[in-house]
Amino acid sequence: MPQPLEDLLADCRRGHPAAQRELYERLAYRLLGVCLRYCPSRAEAEDALQVTFVKIFTRLDQYRGQGPFEAWARRIAVTTSLTAYHRHRQRAAQVEYDEAAEVAHPDGTPLDQLSAEEVVTLINTLPTGYRTVLNLYAIEGYSHQEIGEMLGISEGTSKSQLSRARRLLEERLLAHNNCPLS
């Protein structure tokens, strides 16, 4: 039977390898999912996951129990993965928000017909910058101002990237209706 989280964290703080292994096993799958959303490749996501756990174990004293532990660990995974994003970010010119057209989303989109796996597959086909902003905004819940600060881009560029990601995703959804992913 698994240890209660507080006991497990206390053992991890004392440097017990078995507790660290158990914490890793509890969180690795979900945190790898976070890393995969931001890193340019699976290998880099796996590297980011390892760095994330090094940071978790070396910073456990900074976790004060205010809010869920997994949310604290997830934030570390996001910032660690964004470091990989910054290292490999394409240097292509980014369009400001006022140049981006808004995409209308009528009710009953093709998205309603897709499985979660198909949605993830489509999102993963987006260019890295678009995918990163979409994940940070739509999945992690960051504001455009926060995204801009994290990625070193303007708030307007974040809005532009999101708009373009939505437009490209819509195009790929329409193409998916004509040619299934499987």
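The above is record 1. Record 2 follows with the same two-line structure.
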Amino acid sequence: MLGLPDDITVALFDLDGVLTDTASVHRVAWTDAFNAFLTERAGEPIAGRTDELRPFTDQDYFDYVDGRPRMDGVRSFVASRGLDVDDATATAIAAGKNDAFLAALQRDGVLAYPGSVRYLHAARDAGLHIAVVTSSRNGAQVLDAAGLTEFVEHRVDGNTIVDEHLAGKPAPDSFLRGAELMGVAPAAAAVFEDAISGVEAGSAGRFGYVVGVDRVGGGQSAAMTEAGASIVVTDLDELLAEN
């Protein structure tokens, strides 16, 4: 009744963009942080800088930042522009992004996708065990603000990734840790992701099912399928209609 194979007993949900409408808030916060950095670099007396200092775009977010731990996102984007930063600068960019995100969270609150809430209720009623696996270090705050904490048996977040020295997505380590906490092999767990890096992580971990959630449109669905998604939906409650 959940649109999953019968042998799946655990659901490992990414948070931002899958359960809550916070991916757009992350994207705006990253845009502000990176554009501040690029503007500052543009003022440096270094010849030959043109295209690499162009403003941060939504496509940059999807290609280099979405789904990755915060510092990995900084390094990935900066490297994509052929720029070098020291650890202090990278940390400052990440801190600026987090400050902007937390300010937006406090100002605007968090919306859980109605289709995701319906799916969580159906999953819990059907006896599916639920964990959240997110690269965000604000996972607990977002779950509480969205009223979703009651559904979650275990949480692996950005703090877990740092504390336990896990490799971030697209490596499967955080999802594998989630399955371990839930007491199942990867084959018995389904991964739910809206980021290409997360879909790649689910595929690399050989999980039993990988659900891609396309909130973007365009070529995202095809990219998710290529990255290893078993199925791609635009909202989780579409899976309920599969039955």
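The CA atoms of residues 13 and 132 lie 5 Å apart.
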